[in-house]
Amino acid sequence: MIKIWITSQQLMELFLSSLLHLLCGFYICSSAVAGDLSKALTEFFHKPNTNVEVKGDRDPNSLDLPPIVLVHGIFGFGPYGKGVRPKVSIFLISALNFNIILLWWFPRGLGGLSHFLVAEKKGQRVLVPDLGSLTSVYDRARELFYYLKGGHVDYGEEHSKDCGHSQFGRIYERGHYPEWDEGHPVHFVGYSAGAQVVRVLQQMLADKAFKGYENTSENWVLSITSQSGAMNGTTRTYIHGMQAENGRKMTPICLLQLFRIGVIIYDWFDISWLKNFYNFGFDHFNMTREEIGICGLVQCLLGHAGPFASGDWILPDLTIQGSIRTNYHLHTFPNTYYFSYATRRSWQIMGITIHSSIPRVHPLLYLGVLQMRQWRLPPYVSSPYKGYRDEDWHDNDGTLNTISMTHPRFPVEHPSHSLEKGSEFQPLQPGIWYYKLVEGDHTPFIANEKAGAQFDLIYDTIFERCRKYVVLRKKPPIVDNNVHH
């Protein structure tokens, strides 16, 4: 009887949560479509002069600058620069939604990318890869390498067999930076889950993990900047349905289960115009109706096949346990500069929760922050690491916990130093994570219309800092960062 009561409560909670997300999805879709129609009509009746050249302070030596590569987080930015409106495709996400806090900003456009668009027009050599939106950190890192170097994406024979997908993915006929090597390094800026992707890629370069590229090294990377980076996981994964016991599987009744079913069916139908419009990145799992048929679809839905069965997708990597498993193999290297910006929307004073800039916070964001502060590790679950305390994970930005964003902490803490106001341009040392706490939610780095001048200055700082380190440093003695196992 008690089990029936608990199950009924879970189903009711799931129903209400799903209804809320679906209503938000329709709101976002209708707002985005209305905005696009309005803009299209305006452009039709008032055609802009396309012959006017946009003049900026373009650097004539821009081709000599190391590229700045922006790596997206979960769900991606959409087909950047291809004329497709990523904000409309967010309806597919919001209807099944995991990252609910993005919803309020997308109808107003992907404003944060304007920083990179302006920089690109000025010759700053900015690259914005469109990687798998839901694929694992490992798979994304492999895709990012071939995006830059070019060639046939190789996920690795052993990994592919273990995870049940094809060894090879998309083909880049020509890389976006084919000369990439130690003499032609790059700067990486990783947003959210993208921060962990670039860390994994740097470790792969150090381990010479790419077949046919035996000369790779960690020195192919000049700097890594993390923007609200998920370096130590997030408790939101458990709120949406990941099991707190090990962070690998989903609970039987949760929002993520509905999301899983939607993604599988979406990929199975394989409608070309929809896939061109938005792709979850699971093409290498070959889940289309032509390839697996009805029987294969049933196997995927039952959890016996596909990315959700093998765990080779992004959510397990974003749990605390999953991040620890990843961090166990990652190093902070002595020749690379590391920076991070950690966002938060709440803190606690004398037992009272204070939320910053409440009038500027959308109700969905406000609920997200409160929800994460209220989450507790179940008493029957063992601690994910020695010394775990719930209160350490209370501060958050609605999607990630602030403790996760400053620098790699678990299972072993990497060298770090907090930056005080105005100290960003002081002499800094490679091999140390310099971090700064910023008041804001999880969206301003990519959707900045409500972010204000603070985030404009942060972007200016990032670009100026990257251009400061355009020459590879002389190699200092290799030091032990206390992360060797």
TrEMBL record:
GO CC entries: extracellular region
Keywords from the named record: Hydrolase, Lipid metabolism, Membrane, Secreted, Signal, Transmembrane, Transmembrane helix
GO annotation, biological process: lipid metabolic process
InterPro entries referenced in this protein's UniProt entry, alphabetically: AB_hydrolase_fold, Lip-like_C
Main location: secreted
MF annotations from Gene Ontology: hydrolase activity
Annotated transmembrane regions: 65-81, 88-106
Pfam families per the UniProt record, alphabetical: Lip_C
Lipase-like C-terminal domain: residues covered: 120-207
Localisation: Secreted
Record's protein name: Lipase-like C-terminal domain-containing protein
